[in-house]
Design goal:
Domain Beta-galactosidase galactose-binding: 540-601
Number of helices: 13
Oligomer: single chain
Helix content: 10-25%
Catalytic activity: Hydrolysis of terminal non-reducing beta-D-galactose residues in beta-D-galactosides
Domain Glycoside hydrolase 35 catalytic: 37-351
Bound molecules: 2-acetamido-2-deoxy-beta-D-glucopyranose
Organism: Esox lucius (Northern pike)
Strand order of the largest sheet: 4-5-6-7-8-9-10-11
Subcellular location: Lysosome
């Protein structure tokens, strides 16, 4: 008997030793019997927050993640935008601000689990819902379906991404507990179950059979109809203010058993240019969050920090309404990562359900008002073509789209001549609404007017036969939601002058970002042109200025905000970093976030502005201003009918 006990003891010690050496098997799965997740055998629910690494400079990732951890979250949720990592077909970028593995490792080190949403489609108010624009090289491609060309591209991308994610799975010792397949597929017209089945097999083949794969759809039976699929755990998304048990009833319709999950609980809401800034009251967010947690559900707060659509990355809704540069979202952490009342209110609610970490919360980062910076006119776009378009123009009878010009983002210049004398104002039109999205028209170097998708399809021009017509077309961001995501840019149909179609175009693909970062626009031009006649409009023009970070003040450089008094609409770069679009003339966003990480104390900081509409220098001195407070909620100045935000939250309420 005694000997037996020794043997048992020895076996036990040996088992423990083996486990210690090999590590306790980590597992994460759905317990259908007890309606919960199980992590290493223990009942588990996550309280997570959305943070998009692609909207935050890498240097700030740790600060934002720590603040999320201190709020009491035990997980984060992020999308992976395909177009951010494969900007042109077969060319991948996972470095610097795109270093997804580093981001996941930081989350893991801080003690946050990860809910990964790799798409391929993500929506996310991100250009084309994260799909790369080069997919449109096949004109009639059916995105998010079994279209063989689409599937081939998806297979290749996932063949790159998912093996990279596998070591980060919970089962492999990493932070990723669940992985979403597609996104809100039930809201898409195609309803192609073979596509979802294909993705499921693809994800399983790369990630194995142990990982929990899930779907997310609006909390309505009609969304789950095409969004849910056998083998993928169905979850729902819904905002505050509704009836939580009714919303979860929709999930129960697809998943009679298993954990309740709200994958997107809206802490705020998105904005569009020309609409009022969205806010959602803290009280209503706290109340609904409490109700969700009270029924034992897992929840993800979308967004916990929104961040910024730097560069050209914002998306748009349909009918065409682009989102601004800020993705502040009225989230618990501001665009700049600052703490808000909403942050602390959410932390108090979470405290009722789980222990939140002790210790002080990291403070908001200080902001500095560097003041006014004198700007001077550099060149007009039309005068700078030699440095903006190194390859020169492509000649075409009819206009070509951005994709046909092999350009994804920014601006393309279309140049032709007036075929006839227009001594009286003659309508220049886009009869098929084919200006995607805004065109700045000039005749012989004088601004003639602006065409805008859905809003301004005709302007009048005057001029002699043979006068040079320049049409600078701005891509304002591709539609990211609904059936219109095949959003071609440029002049996607012909322009007419009177009754005639304009022909004989010279089309310039423009590498503005490259020219800005190489400092090419700062070189003196070939003689200043005579100033144009006074007019409310000017031709698109670059301006430059520089400022020095003051000496003797500790902790500079600090974050800041830039504003544009007297300016109307354009794009701004600091030291070659594309901060995004400004459009105070339309609102509601007035200031742009300036992260300190792009500023230099070693050399003057260079500000380059492309102003598209009006010359801010004509009335007097022209400056941009660095301030310490953001303005995202200015009164909206739009002569156009108010467009209503259209989706999801309204569907529910
Ligand atoms: C990859 O992305 C990073 C971050 O945006 C950028 O700095 C870098 O230049 C990119 N690399 C290439 C090869 O484009
Ligand atoms: C939510 O809806 C259910 C079913 O319609 C109802 O019984 C319940 O009272 C509602 N809850 C609230 C808070 O309104
Ligand atoms: C163009 O000019 C015509 C005639 O002067 C005028 O009736 C019309 O309103 C103008 N259209 C625009 C868009 O300015
Ligand atoms: C312009 O019109 C011509 C002649 O009708 C047509 O062949 C061509 O496809 C049109 N181009 C565009 C971009 O719509
Ligand atoms: C600004 O541009 C000047 C002139 O090209 C250059 O010497 C300087 O280094 C630039 N500043 C920064 C911070 O890049
Ligand atoms: C904008 O927001 C600020 C700060 O929250 C607030 O003080 C101000 O009243 C708001 N302005 C408008 C026009 O809503």
């Amino acid at each position: 008997c005694k000997i037996n006990w020794v043997l048992v003891d020895l076996t036990w010690v040996l088992t423990l030793l083996v486990l210690a050496i090999l590590g306790v098997p980590r597992n994460f799965n759905v317990d259908y019997k007890n309606d919960c997740f199980r992590k290493d055998g223990e009942e588990f629910r996550y309280i997570s927050g959305s943070v998009h690494y692609n909207r935050i400079p890498r240097a700030y990732w740790k600060d934002r993640l720590l603040k999320m951890y201190m709020a009491g979250l035990n997980a984060i949720q992020t999308y992976v935008p395909w177009n951010f990592h494969e900007p042109s077909r077969g060319q991948y970028n996972f470095s610097g601000d795109r270093d997804l593995e580093h981001f996941l490792q930081l989350a893991h080190d801080i003690g946050l689990l990860v809910v990964l949403r790799p798409g391929p489609y993500i929506c996310g108010e991100w250009d084309m819902g994260g799909l790369p624009a080069w997919l449109l090289n096949k004109k009639d491609i059916v995105l998010r379906s079994s279209d063989p060309d689409y599937i081939a591209a998806v297979d290749k991308w996932m063949g790159k991404l998912l093996p990279m994610m596998k070591p980060f799975l919970y089962q492999s010792g990493g932070p990723i507990i669940t992985v979403q397949v597609e996104n809100e597929y039930g809201s898409y017209f195609a309803c192609d179950r073979d596509y979802l089945r294909h993705l499921t097999k693809l994800f399983r083949s790369h990630l194995g059979n142990d990982v929990v794969l899930f779907t997310t759809d609006g909390a309505g039976v009609r969304y789950l109809k095409c969004g849910a699929l056998q083998g993928l755990y169905a979850t729902v998304d819904f905002g505050p203010g509704g009836n939580v048990s009714v919303a979860f009833d929709a999930q129960r319709h697809a998943e009679p058993h298993g954990p309740l999950v709200n994958s997107e609980f809206y802490t705020g809401w998105l904005d569009h240019w020309g609409e009022h800034h969205s806010t959602v009251s803290t009280a209503i967010v706290a109340k609904s969050l409490n109700e969700i947690l009270a029924v034992g559900a897992s929840v993800n707060l979308y967004m916990f920090i929104g961040g910024t659509n730097f560069g050209y990355w914002n998306g748009a809704n349909a009918p065409y309404a682009p989102q601004p540069t800020s993705y502040d979202y009225d989230a618990p952490l501001t665009e700049a990562g600052d703490l808000t009342d909403k942050y602390f209110a959410i932390r108090e609610v979470i405290k009722l359900y789980r222990k939140v970490p002790e210790g002080p919360v990291l403070p908001s980062t200080p902001k500095y008002a560097y003041g006014a910076v004198q700007m001077k006119k550099l060149h007009t776009v039309s005068d700078a073509l030699e440095v903006l378009s190194l390859s020169g123009p492509v000649k075409s009878i009819y206009p070509l789209t951005f994709i046909e010009m092999n350009q994804a983002f920014g601006f393309v210049l279309y140049r032709t001549k007036l075929p006839v004398d227009c001594s009286t104002p003659t309508p220049l039109s886009s009869p098929l609404n084919g200006v995607h999205d805004r065109a700045y028209v000039s005749v012989d170097g004088v601004a003639a007017g602006i065409l805008e998708r859905n809003k301004a399809l005709t302007i009048n021009v005057t001029g002699k036969a043979g006068s040079q017509v320049d049409v600078l077309v701005e891509n304002m961001g591709r539609i990211n939601y609904g059936k219109d995501i095949n959003d071609f840019k440029g002049l996607v149909s012909n322009l007419t002058l009177g009754a005639d179609t304009l022909t004989g175009w010279a089309i310039y693909s423009l590498s503005i970002d490259q020219a800005v970062s190489q400092g090419l626009l700062w070189e003196p031009g070939s003689g200043e042109a005579a100033p144009p006649p006074p007019s409310p409009l000017s031709v698109p023009t670059f301006y430059g200025g520089a400022f020095v970070i003051p000496d003797g003040i500790p902790d500079l450089p600090q974050d800041s905000y830039i504003r544009f008094p007297n300016w109307r609409k354009g794009q701004v770069w600091i030291n070659g970093f594309n901060l995004g679009r400004y459009w105070p003339a339309r609102g509601p966003q007035v200031t742009l976030f300036v992260p300190a990480i792009i500023l230099s104390t070693a050399a003057p900081n260079n500000v380059t502005v492309l102003e598209l509409e009006a010359d801010p220098c004509t009335p007097g001195h022209c400056t941009v201003e660095f301030t310490s407070t953001p303005v995202l909620n200015a009164t909206v100045n739009s002569d156009h009918k108010h467009q209503r935000a259209l989706f999801r939250r309204d569907d529910l309420l």
